[in-house]
């Protein structure tokens, strides 16, 4: 230790050059390159998978995408930046109505409508973030809850624009001509979603391993130490809220496409709370956790219905079975695995690796 | 002293409700010097640091950093001005590895924005390499590079203190504000810290808040003594030691000399 101290000299106020790997390792060392390869492989596998599924199964699977993307946003906000939001259902609604109104009143291509869903919601998210940056804990939860409660009311108040209780219809996009008859609208939508999922996952994976993600975590862990390190806490919080909202908005836009309509009943506070529960069950703050959470949001209610039919439960019980399962999972996860399903998965992988190492 | 290169606090007062935490406090810190700030618990030492880094707005008085009057100082601007600070206690990020903790300290040297971070290619990667290298160098300098991948709560207190110091040093500051860096350290660690402070003082200016008198007397070239928010004595260690006001202020308080 003493030696290294003597050698050290004051450095100029910029970063010294660092050695970087060269050649092919350099290329694969780029997170973008690695992530894109993984993403493309996932897309191809997904394409092959839907070839073997019935239209109904594909439809069911395509409900996962919107939730997944919204959960990525929520999970990054909460798990990485330490801000809670009970308003992500409402943010999804903003994305959903953005896409629907564009479809109704303009001739925009699909990609533009999806990007607009994300960007418009991002603006709302940034505004919410400005409020959020002044609030902590329960006050923040309260403010975002107000959004979740208030937004559906706005859509019913301005019926002529938003369609009132009935909502508005959304038409599903047709597959482009180059795919010809090879893809039904249902299949095409599933493919679009998978592309969106891959893009969002890559963007957020990049973000989390960058200095921006690190700043998110620093704010989560200690706001005073973050400030002393030269980082603005409110700016970081607004940024996290904006990016998180963009994901929720894109998820909302896709949700409108999958549902075929938007109505206030689909975006109540129950959606916000379900998202929060799914986030915790899946694994807060991890991207993989968002995948588990979204799968649970889509498949648990289905299984619950099947189960209650098998057990021939009466109406009032069966209607709430999915919620009961949610609640049970939530409590169980919080008690045994604070990092959710993804935490369990990691533990299992870790154990298997250790098992393999031991004999050798 | 050439005021263009130092930090100076002039007639600064801070009130919290009825409590006068700082009462017309003045202090000059020069590069190449270690300026000690001592005083009993609650004397206003941390408050003085909080004023010097913008956490607390003084009710009156001025700050002059490097010859320029500073108005509306905000803590996140501090590192960019070349002033780094450690916090009383630790202030480490408990759920981030040691390396990331220190990389946060170097963040003001980085430039890559959000869009590039989302794309994740090119300059993002090379800058990340450089931040990492700078953080490793700072950890290495303090002899704790071996703990880079550990989480702070897993480490002994003395190691955590060094990590906190590395986080402050990694931004290459011209001035370092240390708030009780020796608290919780063993005699041996404290000796090592004294060596380090003396060595650092040839490169940068240091303002040191400390309760451990032997450390203060050893490393400081100048000392200001605070009591109830007022500077009651000022001078070289020998002068301060001989000042009867100082002994009086510490009466009833544990004197660790
Ligand atoms: N934000 C605040 N609001 C109200 N009172 C405060 C605040 N910060 C400090 N004080 C009070 O101001 C006085 C000076 O506190 P300060 O923390 O500066 O003392 P200190 O010299 O650093 O003490 P210690 O040696 O215990 O760290 C104390 O009486 C403290 O209670
Ligand atoms: Mg203090």
Order of strands, main sheet of chain B, comes to: 6-7-8-3-9-10
Count of helix runs of chain A: 17
Please provide the count of β strands of chain A: 2
The name CATH uses for the topology of the largest domain in chain B is: Rossmann fold
Per DSSP, what share of the residues of chain B sits in E-state strands of 2 or more residues?
A: 15-25%
Topology diagram in text:
The complex is a heterodimer of chains A (360) and B (257).
Chain A: H1 2-7, H2 23-29, H3 31-50, H4 55-61, H5 64-80, H6 88-105, H7 110-132, H8 137-157, H9 159-162, E1 168-169, H10 185-209, H11 211-221, H12 223-228, H13 233-259, E2 261-262, H14 269-282, H15 287-310, H16 315-336, H17 340-357
Antiparallel strand pairs in A: 1-2
Helix pairs in contact in A: 3-10, 5-10, 5-13, 5-14, 5-15, 6-7, 6-8, 6-13, 7-13, 10-13, 11-13, 14-15, 14-16, 14-17, 15-16, 15-17
Chain B: E1 7-16, E2 19-29, E3 34-38, H1 45-52, E4 60-65, E5 68-70, H2 75-78, E6 83-85, H3 98-105, H4 114-119, H5 123-141, H6 157-169, E7 175-179, H7 187-200, E8 205-209, H8 213-219, E9 222-227, E10 230-235, H9 237-242, H10 244-250
Parallel strand pairs in B: 3-8, 3-9, 6-7, 7-8
Antiparallel strand pairs in B: 1-2, 1-4, 4-5, 9-10
Helix pairs in contact in B: 3-5, 3-6, 5-6
The complex binds adenosine-5'-triphosphate and magnesium ion.
């Amino acid at each position: 230790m003493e030696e290294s101290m003597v050698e050290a000299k004051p450095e100029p106020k910029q970063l010294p050059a660092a050695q970087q790997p060269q050649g092919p390792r350099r290329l694969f060392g780029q997170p973008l390159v690695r992530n894109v390869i993984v993403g493309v492989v996932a897309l191809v596998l997904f394409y092959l998978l839907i070839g073997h599924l019935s239209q109904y199964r594909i439809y069911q699977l395509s409900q996962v995408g919107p939730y997944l993307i919204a959960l990525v946003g929520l999970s990054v906000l909460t798990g990485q930046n330490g801000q809670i939001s009970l308003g992500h259902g409402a943010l999804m609604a903003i994305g959903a109505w953005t896409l629907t109104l564009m479809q109704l009143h303009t001739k925009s291509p699909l990609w533009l409508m999806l990007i607009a869903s994300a960007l418009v919601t991002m603006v709302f998210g940034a505004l919410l973030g400005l409020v959020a940056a002044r609030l902590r804990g329960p006050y923040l939860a309260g403010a975002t809850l107000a959004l979740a409660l208030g937004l559906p009311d706005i859509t019913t108040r301005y019926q002529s624009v938003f369609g009132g209780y009935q909502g508005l219809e959304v038409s599903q996009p047709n597959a482009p001509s180059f795919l010809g008859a090879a893809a039904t609208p249902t299949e095409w939508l599933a493919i679009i979603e998978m592309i969106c999922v891959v893009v969002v996952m890559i963007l957020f994976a990049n973000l989390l391993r960058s200095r921006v993600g690190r700043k998110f975590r620093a704010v989560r862990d200690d706001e005073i130490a973050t400030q002393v390190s030269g980082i603005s806490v409110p700016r970081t919080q607004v940024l996290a809220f904006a990016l998180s909202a963009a994901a929720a908005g894109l998820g909302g836009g896709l949700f409108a496409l999958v549902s075929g309509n938007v109505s206030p009943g689909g975006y109540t506070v129950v959606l916000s709370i379900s998202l929060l529960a799914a986030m915790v069950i899946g694994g807060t703050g991890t991207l993989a956790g968002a995948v588990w959470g979204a799968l649970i949001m889509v498949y648990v209610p289905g299984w619950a219905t099947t189960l209650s039919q098998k057990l021939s439960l009466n109406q009032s019980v069966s209607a709430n079975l999915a919620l009961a399962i949610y609640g049970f999972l939530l409590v169980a996860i919080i008690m045994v695995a604070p990092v959710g399903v993804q935490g369990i998965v990691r533990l299992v992988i870790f154990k298997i690796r250790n098992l393999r190492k031991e004999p050798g | 002293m050439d005021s263009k290169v130092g930090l100076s606090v002039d007639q600064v007062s801070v009130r919290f409700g009825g409590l006068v935490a700082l009462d017309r406090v003045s202090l000059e810190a020069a590069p190449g010097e270690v300026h000690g700030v001592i005083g009993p618990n609650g004397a206003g030492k941390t408050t003085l640091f909080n004023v010097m880094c913008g956490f607390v707005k003084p009710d009156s008085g001025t700050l002059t950093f490097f010859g320029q009057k500073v108005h509306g100082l905000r803590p996140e601007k501090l590192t960019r001005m070349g002033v780094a600070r450690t916090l009383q206690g630790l202030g480490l990020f408990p759920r981030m590895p040691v390396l990331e903790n220190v990389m946060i300290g170097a963040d003001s040297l980085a430039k890559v924005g959000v869009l590039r971070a989302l794309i994740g290619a090119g300059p993002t990667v090379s800058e990340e390499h450089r931040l990492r290298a700078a953080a490793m160098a700072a950890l290495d300098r303090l002899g704790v590079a071996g703990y880079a991948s550990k989480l702070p709560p897993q480490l002994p207190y003395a190691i955590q203190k060094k990590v906190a110091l590395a986080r402050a040093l990694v931004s290459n500051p011209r001035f370092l504000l240390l708030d009780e860096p020796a608290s919780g350290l063993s005699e041996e660690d404290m000796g090592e810290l004294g060596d380090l402070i003396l060595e650092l003082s040839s490169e940068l200016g240091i303002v040191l808040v400390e309760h451990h008198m032997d450390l203060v007397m050893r490393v400081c070239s100048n000392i200001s003594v605070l009591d109830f928010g007022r500077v009651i004595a000022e001078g070289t260690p020998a002068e301060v030691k001989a000042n009867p006001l100082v002994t009086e202020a510490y009466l009833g308080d544990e004197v660790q000399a």
